[in-house]
Design brief:
The protein has 96 residues and is α+β, with helices and mostly antiparallel strands. The chain has helices at 25-33, 40-43, 58-70, 73-83, 91-95, and strands at 4-10, 17-22, 48-55.
Length: 96
């Protein structure tokens, strides 16, 4: 069974946010962290994984990502702080 992820990266607490979707969270975040992905995250130094959700259906995860991208900034911050109030980088948690 495949897993898909919608994730939020941040430059720092309450900093610049990036929302993405992938089927390999470890690999994708590694690419962002090491500037292997040209574009927004590289330009604005957005490398800290602060939130993610897991889905089994590709349509559901893409729908969720598109909705989240349209949210007000405060809604995104509230979502992060609900499960990660310290804005910890969750990358090492995902690795385990």
């Amino acid at each position: 069974m495949r897993q898909y992820y919608v994730y939020i990266l941040a430059s720092k607490r309450n900093g610049t946010l990036y929302i993405g979707v992938t089927n390999n969270l470890l690999k994708r975040v590694y690419e962002h962290r090491n500037n292997l992905v040209e574009g927004f995250t590289q330009k604005y130094d957005v490398h800290s994984l602060v939130y993610y959700e897991v889905y089994s259906d590709i349509v559901d995860v893409i729908t969720r990502e598109k909705r989240m991208k349209k949210w007000k900034r405060q809604w995104k911050i509230d979502l992060i702080e609900k499960s990660n109030p310290q804005w910890r980088d969750l990358y090492s948690d995902v690795m385990n």
